[in-house]
Amino acid sequence: MIQLFHVAKTYPGADEYALADVNLNVDKGEFVFLTGPSGAGKTTLLRLLFAAERPSNGQILIGNRNIARLSRRQIPALRRSIGVVFQDFKLIDTRSVFENVALTLDVRGEPRRATRSRVEAVLKRVGLLHKKHAAPRHLSGGEQQRIAIARALVAEPSIVLADEPTGNLDPERSLDIMNMLNDVNARGTTVLVATHDPTLIERFRKRVIALEAGRVVRGGG
Amino acid sequence: MRSGRFVASVLDRALRNMWEQRRLHLLALSVMALSLSVVGAFAMVASNLARVRAALGAERVITAFIGAGVDAAGQQRLRGEAAALPGVARVELLAVEEARDRFREALGPHGALLDGLSGDVIPAALVVVAQAEAAPDQMAALAKRLAALVGVEEVAYAAEELERLTTLIRAVELIALAVGALIALVTVIVVSNTIRLTVLARQEEIAIMKLVGATDSFVRLPFVVEGLLGGLAAGAIAIAIVWSLNAAVLGAIGAVAAGALDPIFAVRLSALHASLLVGGGGLLGLVGGLVSVGRFLKVM
Q1: Based on the domain organization, do A101 and A187 belong to the same domain?
Q2: Which residues of B touch A50 (CB under 8 A)?
Q3: In this structure, are B180 and B263 located in the same domain?
Q4: Separation of alpha carbons A57 and A74, rounded Å
Q5: Which of A178, B108, B231, B281 has the fewest C-beta atoms under 10 angstroms from its C-beta?
Q6: Complex-level ipTM
Q7: Helix residue spans in A59-168 (DSSP H)
Q8: Domain that holds residue A199
């Protein structure tokens, strides 16, 4: 499903590689933890997967698409096949909870009625249906994270990428979020979670890919 | 992409953006409407002058004013000489009293102004009507022959005014063109900067849209539609401004000049000019919208 071959990434002006010679393989329907200390390259790797960054070297295959060679015009289609949960949530403050989640379907031109029923269904699933008219800034960090997850899941993507989805949450909320992602994975979605929280990794006992200083040190497969 | 839903979404976001940034849009709309109304006013004056020119072009009358020293018999002799000139259809002799009465009639309610004037202020005249097929150069030749008659002091005919008017129309058209070009530039700058500010206010939103799979056109179109709608509205407002100005000018002229200048302001704004104003406003808004969003899309 996801394959990286000798992928390297350097940022302009930086002396060191953000990623260096990364090779890894994630199968369809797998749940994988991407772990490592801060600055190990977890976020960079995820950003390469949804084409927010271009690799400096190497090839990235998702399904049968070579991400490294995608043209600008092909990027939206790739992003529509991937649900991304951002570390900083990336919610639009001037839009309601409902509108934030519906955005994923709006950009696809989904009919209004279908959008409403799908958004309400996913908000119910993350326990936020009663707050669909609220502005995200009036909600707690845990609730904002659940909106971000709802937005990533509403279009039922084949891959979900989550960057530190439990970053600023208390243990109980973290468990909630991870159960949600586990549930999505149980339905056949490939899930990649970047985290540096060892308790989550121990608790869920999934495959772990460890990164250090931009290199895969364990579990590249 | 379901096209109906796409169009609805674009319009929805454009109107929403406009409402959320209404102060900014109102300011831009005012500047655009005022700029376009200046162009509209020039166009209106030019089209009215052109209308007057056309009317004067069809005029076949030459007035030959007779010197004060020519007696009634001399005036009759001049009438005969004029009638014998080639290209003349008929000649009417206006004695001093008749000329005065006609002028009084033309002045309408202000005719009393003539009461204090002495008798010889308005001279006797020959009203010479040329044959129907007389071309402008034939009219000029006839005027020359009439002026050469002994006892005729001065001749006046439309072609003379026509020439002056043509020069004036050309000047008005040139000014309108220069002002129009300048205003087009100003309008594009105003629209593109207004939309650029609204884009800046939505930069984060745009980035998020792109991250969830929005295409460039999905992001760009609402801003282009904002420009287009703003431009169309400014064009429509400009028409209203020009019409109101025209009505105000006509009212003011009516009070002092008894309609003497009416022809210049009689046509408010031709349908063609009105459509050009709205269409031009829309086009300028569209260009402004397109110019402003482009570089923000290259971010991701």
Answers
A1: no
A2: 211
A3: yes
A4: 20
A5: B108
A6: 0.89
A7: 75-80, 97-106, 112-125, 141-153
A8: 1-81+157-221
